[in-house]
Amino acid sequence: MARPAKDAPVLLRLDGITKRFGALTANDSVCLDLRQGEILALLGENGAGKTTLMNILFGHYVADEGAVLVSRDGAELAQLEPGSPHAALDAGIGMVHQHFTLAENLSVLDNILLGTEKLSALKSARAPARRKLADLMTRSGLTVGLDMRVSQLSVGEKQRVEILKALYRDARVLVLDEPTAVLTPQESDTLFAILKKLAAAGLGIVFISHKLAEVMAASHRIAVLRGGAKVADLPTSQCDQRQLAELMVGHEVSETVRGAGTPGDTLFVLTGVSAGESRESIRDVNLELKSGEILGIAGVSGNGQTMLARVISGLETPFAGSMRLGDRALTHANARTMIDAGLARIPEDRHRDGIVGAMTVSENLAIEAIRKPESQRFGLLRFAAMRDKAKALIDAYDIRCQGEDSPARLLSGGNIQKIVLARTLEGEPKVVLAAQPSRGLDVGATSEVYRRLLDARARGAGVLLISEDLDELMRLSDRIAVIHRGHLSAAEPTETLDRGTLGLRMAGHTMEAAE
Amino acid sequence: MSDILEIFMSASFWAAAIRIATPLIFGVIGALICERAGVLNLGIEGIFTAGAMAGWMAVWLGAGLWGGVLVAALAGGFFGLIHAVLTVPLGLSQHVSGIGVTLFATSLSYFIYRTALPDVSSPPRIEAFQSLDIPVLSDLPFLGPALFQQTPLTFLALFLVAATAYVLYRTPLGLAIQAVGDNPAAVESQGLSVYGLRMGAIVAGSAIMALGGAFLTMSAFDAFFFGMVNGRGWICIALTVFASWRPGKALLGALLFGAFDAFQVRLQTEVGSFIPGQVFLMMPYILSIAALIVVARRADYPRALLVPYFKGQR
After folding, report:
1. Nearest 10 degrees: CA dihedral of A488, A490, A495, A497?
2. Which range has the worst mean pLDDT, A60-74, A355-369, B295-309?
3. Considering only CB atoms, which chain A residues are within 8 Å of B190?
4. How many beta carbons lie within 10 A of that of residue B111, not counting itself?
5. pLDDT tens-digit profile of B272-292?
6. Shortest Cα distance from B189 to chain A (angstroms)?
7. Following DSSP, what letter does each residue of B68-88 receive, concatenated?
């Protein structure tokens, strides 16, 4: 990819930024330059300090040490007033947050206008704004209906509005936080094409990511953050994925490898299942899970995965279709019946649905077995027995906590997930429902999750893996089905699929249309 | 049956409906402004009382009628500011703070009234607003007495409906208020102050609420007495939901309630001999609950209503 000239002017300089939250150092004297016309990728694991750094740049946080320097209209670099989003906007910095900052009850146009006019103005000047935006849209290729209510837009369209918001304010530096997290692979390609166009037109662009492939494909230069400090700053042409992964994690990365499986009999069957009414619903879903296999469910967030998981967990009763585990009909089962029938549930929002934060680690580990003789006698809880069990599980699953009596909410995301794994997998379940099991986890915890799922598969359990991460699905699953707008495609062996095909199906193209 | 028809044919019925609706219009517009910015203001009942007392007392002490209106608005704004500080930068429970403001404002108003007039048995009257004589319009047959013989405060209420609608939908300030009630992060990322907008909206909304109370003492009853607000504030909170947070629908809801109330008073004289009066008193409330069930099930809540915003926490 064509790099901008070496002597292109520096638009933005981070000079020794340090930010501490209590004992945690989120950013450790980070220095960074961004030149005009350049796309800089900021790479790092969750918790490496990428988002904190960008929030300091944009004035959401104030750095403890260091300064942000910006060049305004080609002038000399000057320090930016810390802690003021207003000042950052004035200096031409536009930020596209990972969680969109749009008012859903307003139109696209009004969202873009928000904050650009004096609050004392007697009338919003919508007509001139329309003209300017029409011009911006033709030049950048970002098209959105200006009169649509934001609540009606797709995720990709909302992101376009966010970028337009920045361009409308004549941003010269554009910062995107994990821009592809919510996009299909095709939408991501479109986004990067637009970013290249904008960079060629003279913007400086920073995008934050932890996905190696897209960082390699779409940037001129890569800065790697680890533990809050910058550990590398290299032209993309001098990098390769393996080296970046090691820089990111800090040690050699061992790939989880899925051995050949030995799928057995059909174990768990959904036939024509429909549930839910709103956008997050499923319609006529057919699914067959064999013992000893991992069946992956791919899809962009919000296409019915949550409802599917709720139905299988017994939290939602389908209004049509049937559900069967072994030879037991479970269509109208509630959550407890499902667990008793042999289902392990790894919920997608582990903080909300996986643990009770105020209860102790040992209570959380016993919570699904609360009626079994091992945890109660004559209706009274056997705390000593629960503690002993918890100690064993803490060892076996390497749960890092201050003992079995500490409240579960104090644990990190990875350790909370280990509690969920220990609790659900210990009973040797027949079916494992894993919804987004590695979301938000670091590399270590992720590989632990992968190992446990593969162990369950080797033991003969059927694993249903719902995920938005294609790499994860391709790596773990024996077969993959795609969910789109509540409809589930037939599962196909992973070997016959590639990322492109899956991406198209996630975007709603049927097989015929894709060919 | 013809008797009931006769009620709707009389100009005095429509005049009464609008008169009864006026304090509710102020209240619901004020509540709507607060809630559009994302803050429920249950201080409304107390702010009504404070507005009623402050406006009346100012006039009684010799301020002009419009001076009284201004004092009432300031009193409302003061209690609004208390609620704003507690709920916005401090992020406390909006329910608890609102109930607290209601109790505080009501008690303080009664206390000041009793302290100023320790041994009055019948509340002293003031020279209140008289109905406005609008050339031509007020003299129209039927329509004149039905719609155009109201006091200036009623016309102020109607003007505020139009002004609120204009500000909310046509000005940058209105867009910002709508946005801050939907997604405060959107407002902050565009360089505006979430706290400033929310606190401003609460203070302004509370000042408008207080005018509803002022109407009671300065237009309707000409005097202040205990318990005179009588739940009108709470009705406004329900009407806000009924109105789906839209000023036009808020006006409609208030008028509907006014019409129910005016109707039940007249119906009592028609059929009161064999149905107990309390049944009629219940009617507007039952009808507003019914209307609420029908309309509000699909209500499009401001998404950030009741959710405090803390800078830098996401």
Report:
1. -60
2. B295-309
3. 85, 89, 101, 114-116, 165
4. 11
5. 677 787 887 787 778 778 877
6. 6
7. HHHHHHHHHHHHHHHHHHHHT
CATH number, domain A10-249, options 3.40.50.300, 3.30.1490.20, 3.60.20.30, 3.30.1050.10: 3.40.50.300
Query: Which comes out higher in pLDDT, residue B267 or A173?
Result: A173
Nearest-CA distance from B225 to chain A in Å? 40
**Any A CB within 8 A of B305 CB:** no
Q: Beta partners for A77?
A: A71
Residue type, B11: A
Structure tokens belonging to residue B263 = 């109707």
DSSP track, A143-182 = ---TTSBGGGS-HHHHHHHHHHHHHHTT-SEEEEESTTTT
CA-based Rg of chain A, rounded to a whole angstrom? 25
Interface test with A, best of B173, B189, B195, B298 (most A CBs within 10 A): B189
Number of neighbours of residue B23 by Cβ within 10 angstroms: 31
> Measured between alpha carbons, how far is B307 from B184 in angstroms, rounded to an integer?
10
Say if residues A133 and A126 touch (Cβ distance below 8 Å): no
Cα A268 → chain centroid: 28
Residue A255 tokens read as 């790939």
pLDDT digits 0-9 by tens, A405-433: 888 888 877 889 999 999 999 888 999 99
Domain boundaries, chain A: 10-249, 266-514
Q: How many CB atoms lie within 10 A of CB A294?
A: 28
The whole model's pTM is what? 0.78
Q: For residue B236, give the H/E element and its range.
A: helix B232-242
Q: Please say whether the beta carbons of B16 and B147 come within 8 A.
A: no
pLDDT, tens digit, for every residue of B195-237? Answer: 999 999 999 999 999 999 999 999 999 999 899 999 999 999 9
Using CB atoms, which residue from B170, B182, B190 is nearest to A124?
B170
Q: Which residues contact A127 (CB under 8 A, 6 or more apart)?
A: none
Asked if A330 contacts A282 with a C-beta cutoff of 8 angstroms, the reply is no
Q: What CATH number has the domain spanning A266-514?
A: 3.40.50.300
Long-range CB pairs of B243-247 (<8 Å, 24+ gap) are B243/B28, B243/B32, B244/B295, B244/B296, B244/B299, B244/B300, B245/B32, B245/B35, B245/B36, B245/B300, B245/B301, B245/B302, B246/B32, B246/B165, B247/B29, B247/B32, B247/B161, B247/B162, B247/B164, B247/B165, B247/B168
Cα A183 to chain centroid distance, Å, stands at 10
Round to whole Å and give the CA distance between B181 and A207. 29
ipTM value for the complex: 0.87
Looking at the domain that runs over B9-121+149-296, which CATH code has it been given?
1.10.3470
Give how far A45 is from chain B: nearest CA, Å.
19
The domain ranges of chain B are: 9-121+149-296
